[in-house]
Amino acid sequence: MQPDDIKAWKASQRKELIARRVAVSDADRGVWNAAITRHLIDGFPQLTALCIGIYWPYLGEFDPRHAVHHFRSLGATAALPEVVRKAEPLQFRNWWPGVAMGKGVYDIPVPEGTEVVVPQALIMPPVGFDAAGFRLGYGGGFYDRTLAGITPRPLTIGVAYELSRLDTIHPQDFDLAMDYVVTERGIFKTAA
User: What is the pTM of this model?
Assistant: First the structure.
């Protein structure tokens, strides 16, 4: 595929996958979220000692806050991303339940005035993903830019529903693969 064709394909896939995810029933979403939370807790005990970058759920995404509550209770710290400027890496701010929040891009909550930190692990929300661990995001490239700028690179864990699985996302040179993908069906080590 040519670059313009890939861009159009990704836009079409993004729209379709978000629509599928938003259409999931509350009952199914609850069961799937519980399964993903359990896989994260059981499969990644090392997160209890790390600073974990998470995200505020948007458009029917898996809600990572329940798993992070567990990790925080055992010593982890958590951080939420903030878009600083278009076409630049994200910055992460310390987060805990009850911290003052403001509105960020797309009105997604962002901690107000907390310390900027560098996560040692990222729990990331792909719109779509493939077996090689490549992530189809919302199209801004924020996570790829962020990962490219962090040394050492954090552990990357994509969390998504199986309905978001693709054969390939047609990765480009700037796309960076995740280390793991966790769905309601289990933990998958990626080809990366």
Answer: 0.95
Instruction: Report how far apart, in Å, the C-alpha atoms of 72 and of each of 46, 94, 166, 181 are.
Output: 12, 12, 32, 21
How many domains, in total, are found in the chain? 1
Residue 148 lies in a domain: yes
pLDDT digits (tens, 9 = 90+) for 132-153: 999 999 988 899 999 989 999 9
| Cα distance between residue 48 and residue 77, in whole Å | 8
CB 100 within 8 A of CB 111: yes
Asked if residue 191 lies in contact with residue 130, where contact means CB atoms within 8 angstroms, the answer is: no
Check: CB of residue 42 under 8 Å from CB of residue 72: no
- Look up residue 78 and give its two tokens: 């958590």
Burial class for 127, CB neighbours closer than 10 Å (0-12, 13-18, 19+): buried
Q: Report pLDDT digits (tens) over 2-38.
A: 888 999 999 999 999 999 999 999 999 999 999 999 9
Q: Which of 164, 63, 169, 172 is nearest to 123 (CA)?
A: 63
The CATH number linked to 179 is 3.40.50.10420
User: What domain range includes position 157?
Assistant: 3-75+121-189
In a domain, 109, yes or no: no
